[in-house]
Amino acid sequence: MDWMFSNGGAPSSVLIPLGTYYNNQYYTNDQCSTNLEELVTQLQADDPKNHSRRLGLGFIDIINKDLKPMLIGCFKDEPAIFRSAVKLLVGITTPIRCLTFVETSSQRIHASTIICELRQLLYRAKESFLDARSTRAIIAHVEILLEHPFLTMEETRSVNFCLALLRNVLHIPERPSTSHPQMLLAQSFIDHTTYNSQQNQIVVNLFAQGLGPLLLKLLDCPQMDEWVGTVTQVISVLFKGRSAESIRNRLGTVVEISESSEEEDKSSVVSDNIDTLRNMTLSSSNSSTSSKRHKKETKFHQKKRRIEVRLELTEEVSKLLGNFVVDFMPKGYNTLVGGLHQQSLRHDLDLPMDQAQFFWVIAYFLGFAPILKLDIGHFKKVLDIEILSYLTWRVVRESEALDGNTLRLVNKESNVRRLHRGVTAIREFLQMLKIYSHTDSDESRGFEEWSRLLHGYLPAMRDLRQSFLLLLRQFNPRFQDRQYLRDLITTNHLLMLTLNRAAEFPAYGGSCFDLKEHLKQFCTPVIVAKYGIALSDFRTNDPVVNNCIFTFLQHVNVDLGRIDLLLDPVIVRPFGQIREEKFHVDKDWHGLIHCVLQTFERSQPNLYHQYSRAMNELFYPESPTSTETMQNDHLPVFRQLETNIETLLCQLRDSGFHRQLDWIQSSLLKTCAAHLGTYDGRNFCNPIACLNQKKKLSCPIVPWTEVEATALRSNRFFCLLQQLDLLPISREAGFYPCIPQNWTPKIMFKVAQIFGPIDQTMVDFDLFLVKNVTTEQSHPHSLLRKSTAHYLSDSLQQATQVNIENEGFLTRTPSPPHLSSQVLDWIVDQQASVRGSKPKGDETDETTLSDSE
């Protein structure tokens, strides 16, 4: 029965027969479990325009009147009712950002008002769990289930729901404080976690009830894969608002305590501290009536005392979290990250968590390993080359999504957050590799062989080092903060140092890394300008950050001989300020600063020209041979574009697109190798192609460099990609060109042959595997049936696609008409990404491209 509909939309507890109180004891109804499940179903079907059922449940205070008594009274003897109550509570406490809102012009209540009411519902929900009996029932129920040798599917779901409920409750923010304005000054010196008194009290209760050991036990269960994602979320909300640095500062003391005390002693100490804090809180709240002296205390002093109690409670929570870290790192961290990684590789499964939390687990906890003096065996699954490969793959995917969302005016906050956490996770990985490679202590023993292998793999990871070129080029100060830029620069610096160190080890497969050749790709006005942005904060930058910036600029000047790039005002201005202010920098950089400023002063007559050219190249990157302006305010117009693939290739080569065509061919061959299984067991050789193949996704052809990116804004280049079916089918499918997931290796090889001859030295696989097409290699275009003349109207109605059913020939069939607008969207996005860039040889859009044959 729909209880909202039957009562005319007015919520009423009478219509929800769940139970009743008698003599201060709650008794459930005979149909309680059935009715709870019905409420869960109705809540899932709630109206997104007004969320009336969710608000109705809050209006009748179902949590305090029914659900909390069920948790307390049913967790042991009536597990079915307990599980249904937990499931409903999970639905009610769902974060607002996870709900769907639909607003229409005719509705009476606006979404903002509904959100405000839902927020009040969540405040009340969190406050109800201040009762320690509620959380104790949840912990006890899970412990009872884990006593079973084997869990049924229903019991496994129950564990997950219990964890999800704890996650939701801890995630709910506290009701805003209504402190008197005079108190704000007194509170300004206190850390922001101080006033999370409700959160702190719940955390204290949970650890006193055994949450820490329970989480470790869950990670040691055979069914761990079923709830590893939810366990991660619980851990993340436990540490919400607490920096890793603050935990590190405590670990020395915590380690001493853990080494000198048994587990039982620590539990008794924690319990004693909790009791003391509770007594202090009770004493504080009743201080006005306990004695004449307390009666004379002013309201200000009472509030001050409460602040002191909260500070002590915050201190206690920090100690509890430190103790948890000491236990978690050697007993659960390795298992948690390994489980998350294995699940993330499955194509048929999405983790029940944001990918940013996977990055966070690595970045937040990995730095604790050397402080706790852990040996490599305790985090071997974390410091693994496949983890680094996965991080690289995810970062590139987030980069593509951010590029697309930037142009489509879509909310970019999630992309920016995930990208930043991905970069910090890579930084922590490289930092731990460096620390354990240089540490001559007990914990580093046995790491030598592991370190040798990791260092040997890194030179083969081209995708990793190219990703930082992509991210620096992509950085946009409008929605990415300076801290991200600093982390990006320091991580790239750390990667270069690690690759230099890798030269001391045998390289995997004979791979070699040329630092100078790699840095040449960074010698562009766009990349140097990003370093200049970071340098402008030299006064507040950490000395490590400034050192990374100066090291890069020194390479540009000395090793690469491109001092002209350093004459940009974005570099010269902070250099001048450093000299004028006599700001302390390492003495090694004084020569660089003097050289750049002296050269700049000599070129003062050309100052305006230098500045104009630099700014133009910063916002309008140069194309392969020249730059012409192009109107992008309107859709590109193609007037009867009539050509075939061979003609397009000739025109593009004549226009100077050799490197860009080689880039497409190389991407096809690497993806072909991945699909042939060439990199099985060594995804690090080509993470982008391998992991997309493993996840059954189309493989993006990533434009790492500015030259590759500007090619995608050429109309002719676009037409070539479109004719070869190398464009995403929609904006949602991707922003970069891509190789369709359902192409076979032979088709990829055939298409790669179109770009030029292929010999064995160009590929990582045996050409014999695709030998049935190599006999035609001298005439690659014979693989294509001669294209009939086709015309692209203003809406590109005659878009074409590869027919993959016949592997003997690469035939062409008309695409469905509805694809034309999607293809058009893609080229508009690419052309809009950098306004004004157009390669030579691409006449205006109103020019007809004719078939040269």
Characterization of the model:
The chain is mainly alpha-helical and 853 residues long. The protein is 58% helix and 2% strand. It is built from 37 helices and 6 strands. The chain has a two-stranded antiparallel ribbon with strand order 1-2. Strands 3-4 form a two-stranded antiparallel ribbon. A two-stranded antiparallel sheet has the order 5-6. A hairpin with a 2-residue loop joins strand 1 (19-22) and strand 2. Helix 7 (153-171) runs parallel beside helix 11, helix 9 (197-208) crosses helix 16 and helix 11 runs antiparallel to helix 16 (299-344). The protein is globular, with a radius of gyration of 31 Å. The model is unreliable at 180-194, 280-285, 614-641, 774-820 and 834-853 (pLDDT under 50).
Outline the fold blueprint.
Blueprint: E1 19-22, E2 25-28, H1 32-44, H2 52-59, H3 62-74, H4 79-92, H5 111-128, H6 132-146, H7 153-171, H8 181-187, H9 197-208, H10 211-219, H11 224-238, H12 244-260, H13 263-285, H14 287-290, H15 292-295, H16 299-344, H17 355-365, H18 368-371, H19 385-407, H20 413-438, H21 447-457, H22 462-474, H23 482-502, H24 515-520, H25 525-535, H26 543-559, H27 569-581, H28 590-602, H29 607-619, H30 645-654, H31 658-675, H32 687-694, E3 699-700, H33 706-711, H34 715-723, E4 738-739, H35 745-754, H36 771-774, E5 800-803, E6 811-814, H37 819-833
Antiparallel strand pairs: 1-2, 3-4, 5-6
Helix pairs in contact: 1-4, 2-5, 3-4, 3-6, 4-7, 6-7, 6-10, 7-11, 9-16, 10-16, 11-16, 12-16, 13-16, 16-17, 17-20, 19-20, 19-22, 19-32, 20-23, 22-23, 23-25, 23-26, 25-26, 25-29, 27-28, 30-34, 31-35
